[in-house]
Amino acid sequence: xxxxxxxxxxxxxxxxxxxxHVFVLSTGAMLSSGxxxxxxxxxxxxxxxxxLAYALAGVVAVPAMLSVAELSTAMPRAGGAYYFLVRAYxxxxxxxxxxxxxxxxxxxDAFALVGMSAYLNLVLDVPAKPLAVxxxxxxTCVNIVGTRASALVQMLxxxxxxxxxxxxxxxGLWGAGSGAGDGRLEPVFADGVGxxxxxxxxxxVSYGGLTKVASAAEEINDPSRNIPLGMALSLLVSTALYxxxxxxxxxxxxxxxxxxxxxxxxxxxxEVLPTAGAVLVALAALAAFSSAxxxxxxxxxxxxxAMSRDRLVGERLGRLNxxxxxxxxxxxxxxxxxxxxxxxxxxxxxxxxxxxVLLTLALVNSAVLVLRASRIxxxxxxxxxxxxxxxxxxxxxxxxxxxxxxGATAMLLTGASVVLGVxxxxxxxxxxxxxxxxxxxxxxxxxxxxxxxxxRELSAAVQSHxxxxxxxxxxxxxxxAVVSIPQGTDINExxxxxxxxxxxxxxxxxxxxxDRFLESGSLWIQPSxxxxxxxxxxxxxxxDDYLVIVRxxxxxxxxxxxxxxxxxxxALFFLAGCSAEPGRVLRLAGELAAYLHSDRAEAVAEAxxxxxxxxxxxxxxxxGQYPLMPELSTAALIGRRVGGxxxxxxxxxxAVSREGRVLRAESDLVLEADDQITVLGPLDGLPDVDGVAxxxxx
Length: 698
Prior knowledge:
Mannitol-specific EII, Chain A; alpha+beta
């Protein structure tokens, strides 16, 4: 089989972010106040065991990281944790979760700006809180006019922070190993194990950036691979840097000085690095604070926007200004940050911020439980979190326990946000929101409510999965069978016609294939305004994927019994996928649906020839079908093994039609008389029947 890069159709958001971008996005969101401000506060409460607290907090974050990765690959759409939670629980819990997530970002960013003001105080003799409020106003204005750092700038900032902190850690560990930290790391549990546990909750704000990747999931290439891998690498690097950085600070800075220090990493850098190195650490801290705060306000300002679009808060918060930014949401975020900075001391901000981060991540873990229990066919993540449901349950229990350990203020404020969210929904959102949630599909299994609209919405999200080069989307189209049906044919008859073809390819009887496609457990990518088609998907114990395109110029109605709304579709794409490769099948189905905008759907329905049907789905390639007959020049190919052909660059032999079956052009397949071969090539570059032998065999 010939390999080639997989192309993709145009989409609203370009899928341009790769693994390194995911790593940078997640790492940049985490490395700020938790590293440059919090170590002194943590050491004041737990002594040397603060080092262990950072490591344990990283371990506690693993279940949520895996859950965010699963949800992001199932629903790679802009919107982040709020999008997942409102789709899992519906508008009531969605209101609570949206408010909690927004508050967690507000608190985290307020904490970061307190840290930034502390580092600026190294050169400016200005009180920290007024300076923090001025910084809040500045960042808020920047986000209202829409200025934001590019991906390249973000990568440079994170690279700079990692390089400087790597130098700091290496020099600090060398100094500590040489005796600089003698006696300062003992006793480890100066305040007992209870002190350690409470500080694990305190420092958890350091990992609040975990959900940031979800906000950009729609722009990530190959999300089923890059999101979990990028997040895992980011969590590993961040945990290591936190733990080792705090170890150095505790080892080289006297406790009496460290515990009241709001710039502890700089103070430690003065001890282990030359003057230029300490200055670089201060600059790295300011860069980290700036990057995290700007990105945080940008993300937080969009939560009121998303909630407004779901009709859970007022319409005004959903308006965009002339800079195409949610000015009201950003302004509300800025005001919230200023209130937090003025109302609480640094330790209280850290505790409350950690409590809201823990609440959000507990809800994310529970969302995976609900979505899996709902058994919605269109919930098909490209990555599935392991150890389900035990990992998620453990994450929820630990998160709730740590909130309790953070004390009365944190518990009171998180509880108040829940009550406020419920009251807001009851008096405002309940009569306006049109969303349901996956929880209703769990109720359906108990004979109660169900939200069919969610199934449709999740199936639409499948289009954002993207394909990998090895998925061979062009080959799937080239091997597809095309069936035309007369006007008036219903969906059941269309399914039977497709199943008759697929039966010969899967070696499964026709009735079983038909039932598999039309049963409630099959995945349907439903019609939408973008593509008036439907893509039913079912899984079989086969080694390959098979596609049958059913064309209906007169339209086929999708009834409510099959999840439709009586839409008339121009084509149905029956995809029989390999059950051992569900991720690949899902990506292929999403890519196929993403190509089917209205003009292409019409082209599929109205094409005169099979090749025209397939070219509508392969806009960057030409497709040709050539018969192998003794009386034609293609006779030179008869008896040749596919692997022995010397195919010109840019051309691909994809399929061989033989006795009513479409075969993959494997290297050991021998071409026979009366075969029909399918060749892909550059646009307007395919040879005629007399020239194809030269392209494939010379």
